[in-house]
Specification:
By secondary structure, the chain is mostly helical. It has helices spanning about 5-15, 15-40, 45-75, 80-100, 105-140, 140-170, 175-200, 215-225, 225-245, 250-255, 260-290, 295-315, 320-360, 365-390, 395-410, 415-425, 430-460, 465-475.
């Protein structure tokens, strides 16, 4: 059933994800930390930057859909997707280095960062839409597609883990120089890995749709697909819940365990993220071959409710135990990983659903929903995280630490002195401030992930049996 994929294409495509996701995690997970702990901004300046980031990410989410129409209409000699994959990686790497290297102060930084963040999102979109749009075009065989998603997910996790694991260890007490160096290394890795994808992947020839796709026809394609709308809304909500724990995790460890000691603890927690997500990649194909996706996501949501409530209880109902805390993180990340993989497959399956109903295939446009959901949820996450930091009072305290990091970066203070002073600032934080931070990390994710589950479990109809019927009918028509 469907087309097959050769090993060179499969591995070149999947391995290429390593550099992409290392780059993405540096910005999505740590750019708020970079601003918070290296720039010494007022609450007003930090708030304006947050608003600018939210606006940029909302625009970027819309831009994802626009970029998908451009790719849909372009067919170069080297392929439909490959030129955008490599070109996007090259320009995005330059913007990434500039983001962590150029450092005006005060309102000058607010203006610069708002512009560079907009450019980063738009240049990353060029690569992102092409890369994910290529995935469903490589094969329509359900087992092979599950295998491809799983293998790609492994290298996604490797890229994410390398960044998320290394950054916390090296930034405390030397944040300005550390972020600059890491950005350069990751930018070079992005280019290298995406060059591998460009040269190693062989695109399948596809029959072009008769009509060119414009914004109006793009909207028609998206809104006519009722299953895409349902799973798209659910995926946006899920991404909000999935990302917020990691986004605020750095502040959680800093203010629970101290600035000087938290780096290694954050890395251990990140190891749990890597192990949990990788385990999900390996387990998902086995689970999906035995039980339905609907049952998988039901088990996931029950486990996530238990995991988040357990995370909230540490230090209040049960002692703060690092081993148990990391075990809880492993539980949360594993079931989030399973949930995410099920969502990716469900989004991709709406491509065949659309082709079955309307006789047209639009891989780029429909696949863009995944990126659209990630970007829009990222905007909501940044806004929520910044609001939690400001309301809790954590941000004001962190600016004292930011001033120390600036001095270390300027060479006017040594790292050990800065770390000792930073620990002193954190020791004066009120228990109510850390509780507010924790409540935001737990209840916002729970509410949106439960809503996500309810939407997709009640409204999404393309189960395994129905998908096989759709693909068989499409093949019969051809």
């Amino acid at each position: 059933m469907g087309t097959s994929i050769d090993k060179r294409t499969k591995w070149s495509y999947c391995v290429g994800a390593t550099g992409r996701d290392a780059s993405y995690v540096l910005v999505s997970m740590f750019v708020l930390t970079y601003i918070q702990y290296t720039m010494k901004l007022t609450v007003a300046q930090f708030s304006v930057i947050t608003v600018a980031m939210v606006i940029c990410m909302i625009w970027d989410a819309v831009n994802d859909l626009m970029m998908s129409t451009i790719i849909e209409n372009c067919h170069f000699k080297s392929g439909k997707f490959r030129p955008f994959i490599l070109g996007g990686a090259l320009i995005n790497s330059v913007v990434l280095v500039a983001m962590f290297t150029i450092r005006p102060t005060g309102w000058g930084f607010v203006f610069f960062f708002s512009l560079i963040y907009l450019l980063w999102g738009m240049t990353y979109t060029v690569n992102d839409i092409a890369y994910w749009g290529m995935l469903p075009s490589l094969t329509s065989d359900p087992k092979e597609r599950d295998s491809l998603v799983t293998l790609m997910g492994v290298f996604v996790c490797i890229g994410q883990f390398l960044t998320a694991g290394i950054v916390p260890i090296v930034i405390a007490g030397n944040a300005v120089i550390a972020f600059r160096t890491i950005a350069l290394v990751i930018a070079l890795g992005l280019i290298a890995f995406q060059t591998l994808t460009f040269w190693g992947v062989t695109e399948n020839p596809r029959q072009d749709n008769k009509d060119k796709v414009n914004l109006k026809s793009m909207a028609r394609i998206l809104f006519r697909n009722d299953q895409l709308i349902i799973v798209g809304i659910a995926y946006i909500l899920f991404c909000v819940g999935q990302q917020l724990l990691l986004l605020l995790g750095v502040n959680f460890f800093y203010f629970e365990f101290g600035y000087s000691a938290a780096g290694s603890l954050i890395t251990i927690f990140t190891v749990m993220y890597g192990l949990g997500t990788l385990a999900a990649q390996f387990v998902y194909p086995q689970l999906s071959s035995r039980i339905s996706r609907k049952r998988i996501i039901t088990v996931c949501i029950c486990a996530l409710i238990a995991g988040y409530l357990l995370f909230l209880s540490f230090g209040y109902l049960i002692p703060m135990n690092v081993i148990l805390l990391n075990a809880t993180g492993l539980l949360i990340f594993f079931f989030q990983g399973l949930f995410s993989l099920a969502f990716i497959v469900m989004v991709n399956n709406t491509i065949e659903y659309d082709e079955y109903r309307f006789g047209e295939r639009h891989d780029s446009i429909i696949s863009a929903i995944r990126s659209f959901a990630t970007k829009l949820s990222g905007a909501l996450n940044q806004g929520a995280a910044s609001l939690i930091l400001i309301v809790s009072g954590i941000y004001v305290v962190s600016q004292n630490i930011s001033a120390l990091e600036v001095e270390v970066g300027n060479g006017t203070m040594d790292s050990s002195t800065a770390l000792n002073l930073a620990d002193g600032y954190i020791a004066g934080v009120l228990p109510s401030q850390t509780l507010t931070l924790r409540l935001g990390m737990v209840f916002v994710p729970l509410v949106v992930m439960i809503a996500s589950y309810l939407i997709v479990s009640r409204g999404y109809k393309i189960d395994e049996k129905e998908y096989d019927r759709l693909v068989a009918e499409i093949e019969r028509r051809k």
